[in-house]
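Collaborator request, handled under Task 6.
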Amino acid sequence: MIGLMLIFALILLAIFAPDIAPYDVVKQNYGLVRKPPSWAHWFGTDEIGRDVFSRVVWGTRASLLAGVVSVSISLMLGVPLGLLAGFVGGAIDQFISRLTDAFLACPFLILAIALAAFLGPSLTNAMIAIGVTATPIFVRLTRGQTLAAKVEDYVEAARAVGNPHWRIALRHVLPNIVPPLLVQVSLAIAGAIIAEAALSFLGLGQQPPAPSWGSMLNTAQRFISQAPWMAFWPGFAIFCAVLSFNLLGDGLRDALDPRHK
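Structure tokens returned to the collaborator:
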């Protein structure tokens, strides 16, 4: 519930960022360069006098958007492939499984960086790169759950009364493998937020002057001793966002696990 409340707070920040942020996120003020936190600037200012609090608030949009869109791409690609591999089996299963193994053999973040660099630096391309890179996780999970579900009695009963294969897969198997997918979605969003921050840190995600927690950390590293608040607040925002989705994933796993009923 704590994770759910934090996520709700982040969503509100993202939606109402124009009303919550007290200052323009791109307006420079060289009279306020690297000022410490104060009543006027709660989180201090950055290297060119921009309000850090306003940029952290606006950065919530980029991080949540990257998390949700990236995982949506993974779901749209991974679930049909996993369902097809698990339900049909045979050569199709072997081909999809070996392709999935090949992708999983590469470190997630390295593959995302390579794909984002190939597509070009932008938030949209970063989301595509993260989504495609995370797809094998959903393929493997969906395949495993489908293999377990298709031998259940209710599937055999549906097959016995003459239901076509596509109807059994979509009407009887898919709805019964949704709970573990929901848990993985929550955990994958947390991973996508970290990946987006890493890509933005490397200059492959959200492009300046648009605010992003990762790009803010990249800028702050040069002033870590003079202005530590520049690094603390975007880092703390990443920590809270990732922790909240991980807590939600753990809660969903316990709530949807029949062994805990």
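The cover message to the collaborator said: "The CA atoms of residues 85 and 107 lie 23 Å apart. The first helix runs from residue 2 to 15. Please let us know whether this matches your experimental observations."
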